[in-house]
Amino acid sequence: MSVERATSGTGEPALGGAKAWAVWGLAVAFVVYYFGMQTGYSIVNPSVQKDHGLTVSQIGVLAATYTWVYAACQFFSGALLDRLGARVVLLPAIALVTLGAFVFANAHGFEMLLLSQFILAVGACAGFVGAGYVGGQWFGMAKFSFMFGLVQFAASISSAFSQNLISLALGHWQWQALFNLAGVLGIALFALGVLFIHNPKPMTGSSGRGMGAFIGSVVGDILRVAKIGHVWQAALIGSLLFGAMLAMGVVWAPKLLIVRGLDPAVANVAASFIWIGLAAGCLVAPRWSDKVKRRKMPILVGILIQLLAFLGLVYAPDSGTAGMMALCAAFGFGNAAHMLTFSTAADVVAPTQIGTVSALVNGLMFLVGGIMISRPGLRVEAAVAAGIERGLEFAQYAAWPLTAGLILALVMGLFMKETYPTGSR
What we know:
Elements: E1 2-5, H1 18-52, H2 56-84, H3 86-105, H4 110-124, H5 127-139, H6 144-170, H7 175-196, E2 203-206, H8 210-226, H9 229-259, H10 264-292, H11 296-315, H12 320-335, H13 337-347, H14 354-385, H15 392-414
Antiparallel strand pairs: 1-2
Helix pairs in contact: 1-3, 1-5, 1-6, 1-7, 2-3, 2-4, 2-8, 2-14, 3-4, 3-5, 3-7, 5-6, 5-14, 6-10, 6-13, 9-10, 9-12, 9-13, 9-14, 9-15, 10-12, 11-12, 11-13, 11-15, 13-14, 14-15
């Protein structure tokens, strides 16, 4: 089977407008939906462990299952979007995440919990890249960078506030009821998707070569994109930036701020400014890139802001609560440069490969991010073994992998070529 874009007799369909925003909004709603599921899982973990009598290692297996299934499926989701379109890929993805929510909420043991993580990961893998793909399809490649930035803006805002909202909800409901409610919301999202999600042009398929040939063509698309050196350079830069962001935003920022003297509750609030800063940066960086018609310079400026803010958080003299919040916001704001690595990678491929290249970049970000999250913890163990006293020096020692990653990203960015399109895509 082969799938290709249909052409209309009147030429290209009009892009943008209310319908485009509706389709894009549903794709972004899916991203926010499963981001909330991820945040919720991290919060209810202790209750899940207690209610099901799980060991610490079993909790680790559940987290690892989601991570690696998501990463493995990520690389194929983009190529499937390019060949099959948003409707054929995103509707099953929404259905799978919805099913995963119900399985998780009603699990009766470790095996069902494990199955729920597998189902959730397979569905979620198409969400972020799918929203970027929809933006490129419905608003045109000229606005791809800006629309993808808006996707990250929505994801960042949801990450900043969903943890507190979920914690508040858990004060009134059991975690099982909360995830059953998430499943009901998924059904509503799926119903809206059936009504509205599709490509601006119909995707038409012709049979004759069989499923094997179709799978071979999908793998061929991935390999063709993977042969482009600049794609890997952009992906590695973005992965180092996002890896540091993920490490700080998910795990290490509150711990670092506590070491810097903040109260634990205040440290959690200050750490949320990382996501708020990222949301603001995602509104600015893509627009700035399009205004100056450059990719390299905005990326380098973003890396430098993120690096300097991180050095301020780790090494600078005490700047008080407001100063720490400002540095967290600056760290996130500079990290918006990682969204421009999607754009510069997309600049060097055909518009029909936009999903494939986005999935490759995002997949590598996810893998590197998982590694970078764990590095400070390993350095903590090494610091204890080396007899370093707990305090700022201890934190600086643990933070070195993130510092090194940001410096490496800056060096790689200096040697990156300019890719901003000089003409119409």
